[in-house]
Amino acid sequence: MSEPIMHGPRSLLLLRLDDVAFEAGGRRIIDGVSLALDAGSRTIIVGPNGAGKSVLLRLCHGLLRPSSGALTWSHPELPGEARRQAMVFQRPVMLRRSALGNLTHALGVARVPWADRERRAREALRKVGLEALAGRPARVLSGGEQQRVALARVWALRPEVLFLDEPTANLDPGAIHEIERVIAALHASGTKIVMATHNLGQARRLGDEVLFLHQGRLLERAPCEQFFKRPASTEAVQFLEGELPW
Amino acid sequence: MNSVSDAALRAVQLIGGADPKLLDIVLLSLRVSLTAVLLSCVVGLPVGASVAVGRFPGRQAVVVVLNALMGLPPVVVGLAVYLLLSRAGPLGSLGLLFTPTAMVIAQTILIIPIVAALSRQVVEDAWSEYREQLRSLGEKRLASAATLLWDLRFSLVTIVLAGFGRAAAEVGAVIIVGGNIDGVTRVMTTAIALETSKGDLPLALGLGIVLVTIVLALNAAAYVVKETAQRRYG
Fold this sequence. Notes:
The complex is a heterodimer of chains A (246) and B (234).
Chain A: E1 13-24, E2 27-38, E3 42-46, H1 53-61, E4 68-73, E5 85-88, H2 99-109, H3 114-127, H4 143-157, E6 161-165, H5 173-188, E7 192-196, H6 200-206, E8 209-214, E9 217-223, H7 224-229, H8 234-243
Parallel strand pairs in A: 3-7, 3-8, 5-6, 6-7
Antiparallel strand pairs in A: 1-2, 1-4, 8-9
Chain B: H1 2-16, H2 20-53, H3 59-69, H4 74-85, H5 100-137, H6 141-151, H7 153-169, H8 172-178, H9 188-198, H10 201-233
């Protein structure tokens, strides 16, 4: 069995964004976002194409640096320490190794002792239902399987926060269902979920709260039910009308 | 015409009979060039991968220089190594001039830029795909370079072969620093040059056939390895 993961109380403040902006090529992609993310809940980022969802995730994860404003973690990652946050991308990048090898490589980067790596990797693969494919070369697995390996890879790292950038785009319904099950289980194991998605049904199924992003600005933040029943901004109303098939 | 067909026939007989003189020359060639390839990979692959993922002032200049050095004229490299190793040179006391070691040194210098420049290109292309993922995992740049080298191992085989092809085929550097001494530093290319000028066409032609066959066989083997691996690993 897995060891319990050390986490603070559920209401703990995790990450604060103060007036964060990001510009690229003269375009303001994120425009003054202020936000406090707490541990525990599942935060879903929705918004039209080009709203800045992916960029916001990358800013939070540290892959991009804000042009202005400040990002403050309650427990900053120190240089030389293993990361306490992880990210799953729209297209998983698999190394030319076995599925298991991809996990043990990530555990090696996180400085998990050699002797523990394989056990932890196998355990994570079991949790995503891919134990039988552990020895298969990761890059020849199906898209859905690769994404599950990517989820197992972050699960093995036991992050406090997991950012997901449209993890089920381009996948078939069966694979989507499986990925959603894994994300829910990851959250149940104590990991904060921050996910951008296009799929509003998925936002409803997986979300506790919704951040509505529009042209780089955070227009609305509401509990999931409330956002879908009574969106407050006209942009959100239009967005939901345009996106929802019903 | 007759002399050419005669020479070809004798050449085949030399190869078929595993003529000891021919065999010695072939083995020395392989020893020198394979050692040079190995050494240039030890230096060139890390250099290429580091430049590919690195961010430092003058990076573009380094890339341009690496690319340009791929076209180093072998005779110039030979001359430089000759000056270094000659009696009056800075490394003259080592007594390496006209030894196989000197030939290895010259060929290594010649192919390091090939291995470095080509691997830089391959690793840089892959880096754009892997970069976010590896950074997300917390991997440092230089560690990422090592990860990429291992991940691209099948593509790098072709680069290593390009280096070997260059080493095995060049005459200019080894003839200057090796001196083409019979039984000591005579390799395939220098022997071909010498025997041709002496008029011993069978030996020259036989060596030529062996040289081309080796390069062809190695490339075929590498192709099979690469194709099989790519089917298996994606």
